[in-house]
Amino acid sequence: MINAKERYKTFCDEHPEIPLFMQYWWMEAANIGKEWDVLFYEENNKIKASFVYLIVKKLNFKFILQPMLSQYSGLWIDYQPDITSTEKLSVENKIMSNLIEQIENLKFTYFEQNFHYSVANWLPFHWKNYRQTTRYTYQIKDIKNLKNVYDSFSYAKQKHIKKNNDNLQIDISVSAEDFFYFHKECLKQKGKGIEYSLHLFLTIYNEAIRREQGLIVAIKDKNQNLHSALFVVWDKKSAYSLISAINPKFKFDGTSTKMFWEAIKLVSNKTEIFDFEGSMTEGVAKSFQQFGTQQIPYFNISKSKSFIFDVALRLKR
To answer: Does 276 map to a domain?
Structure first.
């Protein structure tokens, strides 16, 4: 008998429009060595919606969580192309109610997922006492028109791109290992630790490269000093700034702006949107806004069933 994940693999093959971070291959790569699964809503034995999630078990606790290095997971609905707004809400409420019942049957201690920004309705989760926090990402639409993209940049960003043109150069040959250790060192200089393992990064990187859906874009100077580097991934709809690393020594020379601009140019013939993956940090958000981006809201949905865990989580936050 075919299990749920095998069915989901076939479902993803049939629906390449499913966003990147929910694709079967991504869930396999991003959850290497961990347990993940998928729920379905079906009508007449045909899948109409899916819900992918990571499972983490510690002691007597069971967590349904967001996979690492994944902007979103959870719900995806296969809408009919001619569906009306009223019909869409009715379909969503029916599908979500069914999937929530299945999620509740998982007997979790804590649930947290970032939904894809296309999910604009979370009412059925509210009705079942889930919490919602709005977060934001920043996107440039229609990156195929590079002139319009550049013209929408602020004067400061355009100035950064022109600055040090004779000294800075793009490099797309940086290895995955060198990227990882560069990021790790950049974080160390800021008193922070890296949150993902080399093994996880190599697994995602190798699979993305094999599928021609990933690229490392780096900026170096004439002396081959690495100023900044970005790992960007994409599907047919959007490219995502998955991981960026900036050497603190060079953070004021405009290198990060040049890095993003070069990445946008490189993926402009592969997809439609460039997603900076957002930030709730004021300085980062303001910087992304200067690229002429649109602020796009998405939902963080959570629920705790443990009073002790809920109190501990609130104190941590």
So the answer is: no
